Structures are given as structure tokens and as C-alpha cells.
Amino acid sequence: MRTYLGKMRGEPFKRGRVGWQDALWSWVGAFSGMALICWLSTHWLSQQLLIVGSFGATSVLIYAAPDSPFAQPSHVLFGSMFSAAIGVACFQLLGATSVAMALAVSLSILVMQLTHTVHPPGAAAALIAVGGGSSVHQLGWWYPLAPIGIGCVVMLAVAILVNNLARHRRYPRYW
Question: Do you know which InterPro entries this protein is assigned to (predicted)?
């Protein structure tokens, strides 16, 4: 029991410093990626179709933590799309219920782990598929493709371009 409770104390935290240049590159990437998605949504699609809340968290990973395994392209794209599809399936089977929401999140985590595509915002995409309201529900099986797939591809393209402009950054680490 002592060992079990002892694990809950954690380890001493070693704070890594982020320099102003790294923070600035993260800002440039996040602003550019989200601005492009918003522009495409309003000018190309004439609606807010590509704007999904999980893209905020994806931005943190691909622009501020580009070395993270969760930020690599296969994780971003496939983790998000698999999870979105699971969310759609859960909604279609169980409606916008708490059980459907719990299943969407937990099954998306299971599938992402089994496919080696863990991307935490993917679980949010699954949850949005169930609880996102009628505008999301009307998309049905299109939801994993647009907005999720197209939005991820746009953000990844920006991440590859912006992160590699900085001499000290390299993105992706692997595909």
C-alpha cells in the first residue's frame, strides 16, 4: 500500500525554459494555421465548417511541442480521423447521451493506442462528434473528413512550413 500511495507524490518537476524565439515561432505557426483554416471556412466553404474546438489543442502540439510523438503527422491526421469516426458511430448508435460520450472518448483512446496514432485532441474530436450539436450531427460520416481531415492537413502543411523556417526546429521527426 505504501508503494501504491508513494507513486502519487510524483517526481520533482524540472522546469524547461522556452526562449522568446521558440515562443514566437509557436505563435507564428498557430496564428497562421488557424487563420488559414478560418479563411478557408469563410471564403472557400462560405461557412464555419472547418473550425473545430479540438484544433486549438492540436495547434499547441504541432506548433509549441513539435518534437512530441503526439504532434507527428500520422498521429495528428489518423488519430483525429479515427476518433472522429468513432464519435460519429457512437452518436448514431446511442444519440447524444452520456454513455455515447463516454464510449466515444474511451474507444477513441483504445483505437489510437492500438494503431499507434495517439493524439490527445483526437479524443476531443470524438466527444465533439457526439455532443457538438445539430450542425455537427448533420455532417454525419463527412465529419471525419471535413472538418477533421481537411483541417488537420491544412494545419500540418503550415506546421511543416513554419517549424522548418526556424534553424533550431525540425518537423516532422517522423511520418
Answer: HPP, TM_HPP
